[in-house]
Amino acid sequence: MIANESMSAEALIEKYSDTVYRVAFSRTQNVSDAQDITQEVFLKYIKYTKAGNTFRDEEHQKAWLLKVAVNTGNTFVTTAWFRHRASLEEVGEVAAETKEDWSEVFDAVMDIPEKYRVVVHLFYYEELSIKQICNILNMSETAVKSRLHRARELLREKLKGAEYEF
Amino acid sequence: MNFKDEYQKSFSEIKADENFKKYLVAQMNMEKKRKKKSGYMGVLVAAAVMVLVVSVGFMTGVLRGKTNPDTMPDGNQMAQDTTEPQDNISLDLNNEMMAGQDMSETYVELNFSGLSWYGDAKSNEELLTIFVLYMTGDTLDKIYCTDAENFDEQDLMSEADAAELVERLQNAECTEDEYTGEDMYYKAVFEDGLTIKFWLSDKGYLKLQDTKTVYKVH
Questions:
Q1: CATH number of A14's domain
Q2: B59 inside domain
Q3: Are B105 and B177 within one domain?
Q4: Per the CB 3.0–4.6 Å rule, which of A1, A96, B28, B56 could disulfide with A9?
Q5: What is the pLDDT along chain A (166 residues), one digit of tens a residue?
Q6: B-contacting residues of A 100-139, CB under 8 Å?
Q7: Residue B98 falls within a domain, yes or no?
Q8: For residue B32, which of A76, A10, A49 has the smallest C-alpha distance?
Q9: Which residue of chain B has the CA closest to A25?
């Protein structure tokens, strides 16, 4: 059992902030939005642990943070502000992040629909099992497998010419 | 080439800014220091709210009975209205609450908790108006949002996001369009225990629980 409230904020941020931030970034593709989501996740963490909730182990703690990051991201991308900003990006009024620096693979992942990006990120970056992803996304195993399958198809299409093993 | 290796390599460059991390730590420490509400005071506040809700419910029932006794449904009628509401609308009823009670008790419970939120709505427009009135009213407590059908505490929307959603819902209107887009599930919880579930797609289509009517949110 992790004594949550005794874990310092510094230690928690050092350990998990990049993990949460990456999930947020994979959703929003934007630094400031990812920061907003990350901040909200950790404030929720404090409230959650202050209420007396504990985690079984580090894996449980990380899974909780990932789940909250995904859910907070879900809420965030449906807000009017986010959709307004996204539409401005489409017409070029707001500069997107520096895409020219991204690798071919990164670019391909960022180019697939958002619902597939999360599954790809959790599976390939966080190396979670299908079952763990099901728990985080609150989805059935079939639905997760189906999203992953579809994501791979889309990525193969985008990465034509380069032979990647999935 | 291995996709996973390439993806991990490229994504490992995505990191939270060090200054942002420091800011986060400060925010968290501030949140930690914020005093918890006293348990005793919490109980008192909850009791006061409960008394207020029950009083308002009671007074509403008394006034309705006095001013228009002919329209006051009997217990059987009210129970029927709740389980098979007009226009195929149903509510998130707690069946355990209903079990084992006679109809007069059921009527009192329902009247007090204000479960017949749709009132006398007979058209989709009226239903929408009542829904928006509820969502913009003072009794809205919290809203949950998730892309799956189950709601838990992690799905609780922040006050700012909830306010923004409510603002959007005020622009909803009836449409002949088909409901399309990726679903997000919402559950609005009111201070008197009433819950209203609804769906909102990324294309701006709104559906209220158990209704087939589609609304468009701009």
A1: 1.10.1740
A2: no
A3: yes
A4: B28
A5: 555 556 789 999 999 999 999 999 998 888 888 999 999 999 999 988 888 888 888 999 999 999 999 989 888 877 656 655 555 554 444 444 544 556 889 999 999 998 899 999 999 999 999 999 999 998 899 999 999 999 999 999 999 877 888 8
A6: 102-106, 109, 115, 120-121, 124-125, 127, 137-139
A7: yes
A8: A49
A9: B14
